[in-house]
Amino acid sequence: MNQDWLGTLIRRLLLLLGGCLLLGLISGEYAWALVLGLAGYLGWTLRQLWRLQQWLKSSDTDAPPPDSHGIWGDIFDSLYHLQRRDLRLRAQLQTVIDRVQGSTSALKEAVVMLDSEGNLEWWNPAAERLLGLKKPQDTGHLVTNLVRHPAFKDYFDSGRHEEPLELPSPTNDRLWLQYNITRYGNAEHLMVVRDITRLHQLEQMRKDFVANVSHELRTPLTVIAGYLETMLEHSEELNPRWSRPLQQMNQQAGRMQHLLNDLLLLAKLEATTPPATAEPVDVAALLQSISNDALALSAERQHGIELDVDRRLALRGSESELRSAFSNLVFNAVKYTPAGGQIRLRWWRDEYGAHLAVQDSGIGIEAKHLPRLTERFYRVDSSRASSTGGTGLGLAIVKHVLLRHQGRLDIDSSLGKGSTFVCSFPLSLTESS
Predict the structure, then answer these.
(1) Of residues 158, 151, 159, 164, the one with CA closest to residue 183
(2) pTM for the whole structure
């Protein structure tokens, strides 16, 4: 549209008024001449509006705009250019959408788009194979009504999707799937589902192998340890040069027994499901007992152990599993805190849940090691583990116990400034007396 359209319009109106005045001068009827002139202009304007409406309603997007002149000609031309530009943008956008859909259709992973309420909007062919979705009848349905598994519903409704969920396929129990959900846009969901059957089988083989080997090694190791203890009890009857080798063998046999016990405990935690009902555990009394054991472990190193616990706060769960997890954290604090150091155990509840914090003034851990501390056999420093007699499985046990109690482990540590391990549990598992 010309930039001087307003001036052009004013000039045309002035010409119209001039013509009306001239007609009035000739006829002597100024008012009627003005009315006729304005009525004619209004009729012409209404006709242009009608032509514009008919053109916009036309289904033929390639139809040229109506021919006109003046300001209406500029309007028609401008709308036509806007329409052409919009069509080009829509074509480009459709091309991008087609490419995205084509590429996702070629993926082996299932890709599912959900709205903010969890209703199905679009999915690729792999989703039909892995999840059993069908077009078009499943469009608009809640995904939790089609993937019928209590764990998936809890996972989707929780809104906490940092970690993936692994479940058997709803179409084939022999297939194991991994669900990853990401939120984007206006709270929509993008769900990517992978077939991890092979990985699941390998993991199950690893678990079975560890459990079976640990169980089979237990008996011969018990026999070896028993004979070593017997020989040490009668060491005065043996050549003195055998005393030190026997002591070292007995020490290493003890470490192997601790390792097998931890492996068997991990295998048990992985192979069994948490009990449906759990009795309240007196955490304050449990921590007092662990504290006494920690003082005995500390012995001449004389650590200061402080208890700050809410004695009315109980936690529903397995007492033996919680004892194993909490004692691992406390004993680690004793092992890695220099003589005379301070260890603080705190048990409390707030609006977010119940928490146990084990804080020490020990040697600390570099930040780069923190994400991997709960991995099996992960060593921050191999010499450190050798000197303390650790198996490298303690924090892995802690992690599994917390998962079985719907909890999580947070670690805060700085090299040379000590560490704080915090176990957090949901309020639904707590009880107050």
Answers:
(1) 159
(2) 0.59
Q: What distance in Å separates the CA atoms of residue 244 and residue 120, rounded to the nearest whole number? A: 70
CA distance 156 to 150: 10
Tally of CA atoms within 13 A in the half-sphere of 121 that contains its CB:
11
Our measurement of the distance from residue 387's CA atom to the centroid of its chain's CA atoms, rounded to an integer in Å, reads: 37
* Cβ atoms of 114 and 189 closer than 8 Å: yes
**Length of the chain (residues):** 433
Partners of residue 421 on adjacent β-strands: 358, 411
How far is it, in rounded angstroms, from Cα 193 to Cα 130? 8
Run of H or E residues at 6 = helix 5-27
Which residues lie across from 411 on neighbouring strands? 421
At 414, list the tokens: 């700085």
Tokens of 218: 């237990």
According to the model, what pLDDT value does residue 60 have? 67
Task: Give me the half-sphere count of Cα atoms (radius 13 Å) on the Cβ side of residue 349.
Answer: 18
- Give the other-Cβ count within 10 Å of 43's Cβ: 10
Residue closest to 392 by CA, chosen among 404, 380, 409, 407: 380
Residues of the chain with pLDDT under 70: 1-13, 16, 24-25, 28, 30, 59-62, 68-71, 73, 97, 100-104, 275-277, 381-391, 433
Closest CA to 376 of 227, 262, 292, 232: 262
Fill in the DSSP letter of residue 430.
Answer: E
Residues 6+ apart with CB under 8 A from 263: 210, 211, 214, 393
| pLDDT at residue 421, rounded to an integer | 93
Q: Which helix (H) or strand (E) holds 421?
A: strand 418-425
Q: In this structure, what are the phi and psi dihedrals at residue 392, rounded to the nearest 5 degrees?
A: 80, 10
What pLDDT is recorded for position 238?
Answer: 76
The one-letter amino acid code at 309 reads: V
Closest to 50 measured CA to CA, from 16, 76, 81: 76
Distance in angstroms (rounded) separating the CA atoms of residues 68 and 51: 10
> Rounded to an integer, what distance in angstroms lies between the CA atom of residue 426 and that of residue 158?
13
Strands (E), 108-169: 110-114, 120-123, 165-168
Instruction: Sort 256 into a burial class: Cβ within 10 Å, 0-12 / 13-18 / 19+.
Output: middle
Say which residue the tokens 């097998």 belong to. Answer: 260
In whole angstroms, how far apart are CA 196 and each of 54, 125, 206, 269, 400?
A: 58, 18, 15, 21, 21
Q: Where does 118-175 show beta strands of DSSP type E? A: 120-123, 165-168
